[in-house]
Here is the input.
Amino acid sequence: MRRIPPPADWPLIATVPLLVAALMTVVASVISYTVLQRLEQDQEAHLHQLATTHLDGLTVALQPHLARQDVWEVFDVLDRTSRREGGIATRFVVVTLPDGGVLAASDPQSFPVGAPLPPVHRRHLEGRAGLAIDEPAGLAWSHRRIDVDGVQLGDVLVEIDIGALLDVRRQVLTTLVGVNAGLTLALAAFGYVLVRRLLRPIHLLDTHVERIRTGRVEPIPARFIAGEGSEFGRLFRRFNAMAAALAEREALAARLTAEEKLALLGRLASGMAHEVNNPLGGMLMALDTLKRHGGDPQVRAQAAGLVERGLKGIGTVVRAALVAYKEPPDAVGLTPEDLDDVRYLVSHEIQRRHLRLVWENRLPGWVDVEGAAVRQMALNLLLNAGRATPVGGTVRFEAWMAQDCLRLSVADGGPGLPAAMADLLRARGEAALPGGDHGLGLWTVARLLHRTGGGVEVAVAPHDGTTITLTLPVGADTAMQRRPHDAAA
Here is the structure.
């Protein structure tokens, strides 16, 4: 069974009309109750006045005949009174003696002469003179005591039919309910249309915000802004300014990323050129030696060995670059040899600044992680550490397994990583791209950490360097057809 959300989660387009309907229902109920109460009071006052007038006339007419207990004269008075037009709708009139016996009645069959008044009617004579109403039965009773000089001659009891008055009340109630229900529905419908109209700009804004969330930055068209002259107009213009700034930032981020890649490729090309030129110079010298002294077996062997070592060195550099930047499509994971290849890529920077690289690769074997991302992060951290470390300093790299996680640690001997750069790493790719040309490598590491689900610890010691430790989760079930070193082979 589908659970109904709480009212706080209902949309405004439904909440406001329902609230209007609820308020109208409360107001209509109060008004209806007040009107009915006032109508009931007016009807009772009018009925009481008519009954009093009717009994006053009967008392005056019956007093002399009741003193003589003249039954026929009393009947005559009751008969003449019942034939009068207008007044109240009496069901019967009963004249009783002090002992409770019936002297005369407008309905002799129900109240025979001399018979005692039935108890159901006698109780109306026992109370205080006035008007007694029984709404469920649709009846009212009024009685008057007749006496002369303090001597009781008898009582007059009148039963009145108030059905017509109750019908008026029901008609008024029906009219009030119908009118109030119609007004409530009309106002609720008007509220729905009005709220829908008022929420149209918010719906438009929500649509464009959702497009930004999905990666499409689109400003609100000018035709919608032209029709909004107050708060929504200002809000739309501010949104368009934000969308323009966001689009500009994304374009800048793409350009800076491309520039960072070009800069990184330039540094790598410089390093590879250095690593390739050195053995090339030795090989060219060996070839020149072979040309001049190729007949000497010892010289020939030394020259061939030098060429072979030079070619192997060049092959190692090329292989390291391929492994770091061209991941085989079906290769997932990392081997100690793959990680060692990063050492060759940073060797030029290390040698150029006369740094000492302490390399500790303690991986036991193949590790189920995203190998290309790990090598990219290690390369960026090592290049940053090399730039931060003073000439002649030491850069340390360490890789090991701890509790089903791969941990990489890079330590430099620089002045300490700025707090803004440390926060950039800890943001795990959620921070904005740095504005200048500094921190792009760390931003790339943060994005790769976010993609791989890793964590980072930054330990900064003022004037004693910075240690950055990455913790990368190792997957248990990775679909692989072959190991990376098998592909390389």
Q: What stands out?
A: Residues 231-293 form the longest helix (63 residues). Confidence is low (pLDDT under 50) at residues 476-489.
